[in-house]
Specification:
By secondary structure, the protein is of the alpha/beta class. Helix content is 45%, strand content 21%. The longest helix has 27 residues.
Length: 238
């Protein structure tokens, strides 16, 4: 097997196992790392083998490697997720938000529940016209003890999510909570479904667009950062 065939095999295996790859560098536009958040976000408990999942223990080390890499100029996050584990989802969102590299997200089929803060964690965000975002209160599985401390804990988790989202986009906390507690849209649940432009109008997503707009925006942010760093280096050397 030649070197080119080995590289292609490694690339295919990487996509299959982790949903990630680094897009090739073209001219001087820079190198983009592609990260996909799909299916259900898996936390400390393993989900069934038949479930399509995103494993946070795969994502976090890769994000650290992206931050440390001198060859990667930006991160593109593609989302089509039903949500999942709250702690794992927030951990991913916090890691993306703390990257010094430019970041852009694109919501495709949907970015529901804990997928909302991940979509909002990037420097700029897009959603396709048919993409959806479901905003609802925090839920827990298993036995729930009906004590004041339990309800306080639920509220604390809820506040962490709303606080993160509102600090990374233009929606107010009051409006976010109104969407979460909406009783008129979901027949068997509380919450709100936002489709495409609705998510932009509410201030959660920056713009309606697709992959071409997302890639173009990321290259623009990366080029802007390079110029800023170059200007800073020149000032230091004077």
């Amino acid at each position: 097997m030649g070197k080119k065939e080995e590289q292609e095999k490694h690339r295919d295996e990487r996509i299959e196992q982790t949903g990630q790859l680094t897009l090739e560098k073209h001219e001087e536009e820079g190198t983009i790392h592609l990260l996909t958040i799909i299916g259900e976000i898996e936390g400390h408990d393993n989900l069934s083998s038949s479930s399509k999942t995103t494993k946070y223990e795969h994502i976090l080390p890769q994000l650290a490697a992206i931050e440390d890499s001198s060859s990667i100029d930006g991160l593109l996050v593609l989302l089509n997720t039903m949500g999942g584990d709250v702690e794992a989802g927030l951990a991913i969102a916090e890691m993306i938000a703390s990257l010094s590299k430019p970041t852009v997200s694109l919501v495709l089929g949907g970015s529901h529940s804990i997928g909302v803060p991940i979509a909002a964690s990037t420097d700029y965000s897009f959603i396709v016209p048919s993409g959806t975002m479901v905003i609802h209160p925090v839920r827990m599985s298993g036995t729930v003890i009906g004590a004041p401390q339990t309800f306080d804990y639920f509220k604390q988790i809820q506040d962490r999510i709303t606080g993160f989202v509102c600090s990374h986009c233009s929606i107010s906390q009051q409006r976010m909570e109104e969407l979460m507690m909406n009783q008129g849209m979901l027949t068997k649940d509380l919450g709100t479904i936002l489709v495409g432009r609705d998510a932009v109008r509410e201030g959660i997503i920056s713009e309606v667009g697709g992959i071409s707009q997302a890639v173009k925006k990321l290259h623009e942010l990366a080029e802007r950062k390079k110029k800023k760093n170059s200007a800073s280096d020149k000032r230091k050397n004077k």
